[in-house]
Amino acid sequence: MPDLTSNGMQCAEFDGLLTDALDGVLTGVRLDRFQAHTRSCPACGPLFAEVEAGRNWLKDLTEVEPPAGLVTSILASTSGVDTQRLRVNSASPQPRVTVWERAQAWASGAMQPIWETVRQPRFAMSFGMAFFSLSVALSVLGVRPADLRQVSLRPAAIRHTYYNSQARVVRYYENIRFVYEVESRVRELKRDVAPAVAPSKEAAPEKKDHSNDTTQEPEQKQERNYSQRESQLILAQALPGSSLKGPSLDDSSIERPSINDSSINDPSVVSVTAYRRFV
Amino acid sequence: MEDVQVVAMLVRRCVAGDAAAWEEIVQTYHRRIYNICYRFAGSGDDAEDLAQEVFIKMYRTLGSYDSSKGAFVTWVTTITRNLLVDHFRKTKNDRITDSLDAASSSHEDAQPLSEQIQDQSAPPDARVRSREVGETVHAALSRLSPELREAVILRDLQDMDYREIANVLRVPEGTVKSRINRGRAELARLLQRTYRQVM
Ligand SMILES: [Zn+2]
Questions:
Q1: Are A3 and A10 in contact (CB under 8 A)?
Q2: Burial (CB count within 10 angstroms: exposed 0-12, middle 13-18, buried 19+), residue B193
């Protein structure tokens, strides 16, 4: 558009006021100047007529009626709820579609795309693990589903939350392991004082192994030290009754407690130590 | 246009798994979405498919709607518009033919545009005539460039204000107004040309 100045108004300014003028919100001096420019400008006069005509043509486009089955097909492809069935049922005096049924239908519809993805093998494992650790972490932290609304979904925040939760889960397992270990030791000692020396020999190198392992996290080491100290303490108390057997036991005697005494207690010790290696 | 709290509640119920709330949303907005799709895409069949796609997308992303960031109707319209633009890019508007005469409507009794206009000289009745004029304008609208078409659809057919349209199209209000002016003017030129041929 040529930027002419006609009646003190430039074409660019006219263009900016065009919609306001057609909407009827242009008043006073500005309206007067606008109208004067429309009458005198060879470019803007016809433009105004065209824009106004175009707007009037568009008034002929009334709202069209959507196809009758559109809502039904939308619901079928989203929530999976068959409204035809619902309407028939709600028309009858006793609606047979319960809220539970509708919820189920909705849930199956909602889960469909998620389920398709989860079923792919490469996602299945990671989703399973993620869900497991998340649920454990949440129960450890005492998080209620209602709290999740406040969870930040920024990538950095998610990462932070993930590592935080992971650390807590590790600590949780460490604590559980420690409790199991102490429990099993105490039970062992209660059953039989003498063979209890064997586990102390068995457990000692095991623990040394791990205390040398500097890759472990500090709190793990700390807890392990507690458990070591704790069991040594208990063993020290138990030793007077078994002082003869204790130091002279060789490697073969390590097997003895599990065979002779407590087949119930031993697996717990084994499983605990085995577990420690893999976690 | 909408009670913000009522809609926000409806959306919350829906996100929580309330199928009845979702049906209410579909019932409330399907007409609007279908009309935008129909006017933008040009054909009823395409509009039906596109409207369905819009609702599928809405259903999946409903949880991301934030009532503090704008009206639900603006959110819904934005989803619709984005999907239409994607659709347009994919199809490159290949069904829109060069000649207005060849542009057909979704009706089975669709005729070439010039014949429709000739018929207007002796209309059997006013409603038929008004429908035919509507079809003529609809065909002309399909010939506008997508960016002008979407602007006039949202303003002149959906009665949205400039600020809302600016939000949907993610352009400044001045640009919205300019596109509306150009779209209306272009439409008038197309229709004037057609009428001159006939008369
Ligand atoms: Zn001018």
A1: yes
A2: exposed
CA distance A38 to B157: 26
Distance CA B69, CA B60 (A): 19
Q: What is the token pair recorded at A254?
A: 């390590």
Q: Rounded to 5 degrees, what angle do the CA atoms B36, B38, B42 make?
A: 130
CA distance A202 to A246: 12
Name the residue among A57, A67, A106 with its Cβ closest to that of B187. Answer: A57
C-beta separation of B166 from B72 below 8 A: no
A75–B26 CB contact, under 8 Å: yes
**B146: closest CA among B77, B73, B89, B79?**
B89
Task: With CB atoms and an 8 Å threshold, state whether A60 touches B60.
Answer: no
How far apart CA B23 and CA B144 sit, in angstroms, is 34
Mean pLDDT of A201-212: 42
With cut-offs at 50, 70 and 90, classify the pLDDT of residue B48.
very high
A62 touches chain B (CB under 8 A): yes
As for the ipTM of the complex, it is: 0.81
Residue A201 has pLDDT above 50, yes or no: no
Q: If you measure CA to CA, which chain A residue comes closest to B181?
A: A51
- Compute the nearest-CA separation of B170 from chain A (Å): 19
Hey, CA dihedral for A196, A198, A202, A204, is it positive or negative?
positive
Inter-chain residue contact A53 with B137, CB threshold 8 Å: no
| Residue A216 vs residues A164, A224, A272, B60, B117: alpha-carbon distances, Å | 17, 10, 17, 43, 85
- Determine the Cα–Cα distance for residues B153 and B104; give it in Å rounded to an integer: 19
pLDDT at A213 over 60: no
What is the C-alpha R_g of chain B? 18
Q: How far is the CA of A15 from the centre of ligand 1 (A)?
A: 8
Phi, psi of A6 (to 5 degrees): -130, 130
CB of B87 within 8 Å of a chain A CB? The answer is: no
Domains of chain B: 4-94 (1.10.1740.10), 113-198 (1.10.10.10)
pLDDT of amino acid A54:
96
pTM: 0.54
Q: What are the pLDDT digits (tens) for A111-161? A: 655 555 555 555 556 655 665 666 666 566 665 655 555 555 555 655 665
Q: pLDDT by residue (tens digit) across B54-103?
A: 999 999 999 999 988 899 999 999 999 999 999 988 877 555 444 444 44
B44 touches chain A (CB under 8 A): yes
Q: How far A90 CA lies from chain B's nearest CA (Å)?
A: 13
Between the CA of B178 and the centroid of ligand 1 the distance, in Å, is: 15
C-alpha of B191 from chain center: 19
DSSP conformation class of B153 = I
